[in-house]
Amino acid sequence: MAARLARQQQRLAPLIGVRGTREAQQRGDIRKLIRKAEARLADAQRRQATGLVDRRGSAARQRAYFQTRRGPKGGPVVNLTDPQARLMVQGSGSGSVQGYNSQIVCSDDHLIIGVHVSQDANDLHCWTPALAAAITHTEALDKTIGLVLADNGYFTEDNLTSPGPDRLIAPGTGKDVHHDAKHHPTQGPPPPNLSPADAMRHTLKDPAQARRYKRRSATVEPVIGHLKDRIGLRRYARRGLAAVTAELHLAAAALNLTRLYAATAG
Fold first, then answer.
1. Which of 15, 169, 210, 242 has CB atoms 3.0–4.6 Å from 181's, for a disulfide?
2. Which is it for the CA torsion 99, 100, 101, 104, positive or negative?
3. Transposase DDE domain: which residues (predicted)?
4. Which helix (H) or strand (E) holds 201?
5. Residue-wise pLDDT tens digits, 40-61
6. Measuring CA to CA, which residue among 168, 258, 255 is closest to residue 217?
7. Has this prediction a pTM greater than 0.90?
């Protein structure tokens, strides 16, 4: 859906401001397609956020059904081990798993400054609580957050315009960001008439801003890998949202203590 919307927006861009009856008709037709694509994308995001999208194959869904169903035929399918868990996409196209959405906010020197656990199947609504946790912790240390870097999982108008620190949120993959900055570069601030989404696209086509965004993969990705491989948090041992949140806080504290020890050991 997102790719379809982007294609229609690309079709519309050359026609903006062009005079002519034919061009006006084309703009009207494309805008109708854009509105339909936006509505379908919003509906898909809502369904994914509520865990209604199951990307497993038919065989995997059938196995899960017979493993979890209890009671009379036709009864509801539930997770009897942890009813608060939700259906999540596991990795990149590798199926689905019952679990939680864990958010990690880290500093440039690989210290975890905020965590958040949710039942949302995607990251769209996790921006505000995760950033709020990070701001609370940094302010307690009399520090401030200068710039937030986030991938395209957070790319919504609400997240682009919400109060808080300056931010660079990618409209696509990191590869797309650096391709556009290299082949379609911009300079200076975005024009004032652009939407928040288009303004961010304009900003990230600036090679200097694209280089700043590139730092994202060198900050949070190693921290996530450290949590999994060094701390051993590949799956939660506890059940329930509150217990899982406490477990993630404990793992984050353990990681930070090892970082601080390594930095101060003489």
1. 210
2. negative
3. 197-260
4. helix 196-204
5. 888 777 766 665 555 555 666 5
6. 168
7. no
